[in-house]
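<discrete_fold_record>
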Amino acid sequence: MTSETKLYGLIGYPVKHSISPQIHNSAFKILNINAVYLTFEVKKEFLKKALDGIKALGIKGLNVTIPHKIDVIKYLDELSREAALIGAVNTILNDNEKLIGFNTDYTGILKTFEVHKVDLTEKKIVLLGAGGAAKAIAFAIAEKASSLIILNRTKRKALNLTRELSKKLKVNVSADSLTFESLKNNLKDADILVNATSVGMTPNINQTLVTKKFLRKDMVVLDVVYNPLETKLLKEAKEAKAKCINGVEMLVQQAAEAFKIWFRIEPPINEMRNAALKSLIGGRIN
């Protein structure tokens, strides 16, 4: 580090568990970029001050995580199309003291399916969850799928998301409570299942919303949880001989998109992926 080292980072609360520093700092090292990526724990009541600090301290870019993805918008100067559409931001660019918000989860999920050679066109997709991650995923995949069904423990949240999708995208979306019956009815002919909840994340590694009896070998099952690498859901899917995709690829792809926004060059995505896997296998959480 020198007096000219550029600063990037992650804001949220909590963030000590994040492996984003390993992912981005590995990219800086490979490309010989004089920059460092750090984590900053920011409580809700200090969010505005933190955003003012970006300009004051000359921080070049930030990622944003829970619980700030929505609240941060009111402190930004401009939004990308995806961020405005979704109503959530996970990446900020400081462009000469103009703060621009982006949502790279949108591109991250599409790139993840692309890497795994999964075509979303005319597929029936079941999405579990209606929170921040689920919202970005829903907006990304809704226009490609023949139908999208959102299942959530709180049906009202799922309905609110479907109304927003229908209004903004004019797509075929439906919602229901996440129950045994709704899983049974909707998964019997589904092509793709996406878990966008935190169920199964370390330390609750024996939890899953779906067991193998609902899954088939001609299905694709993606779990956004990336620690553990093989969640209980993916173990169940593996036993059912379904195609399994863990959450690491989406994590890396959204990080790569943020890197492109900040530096306008192609990131070393293989090295970023390896850094993520090394951190996770080494025992880091989240």
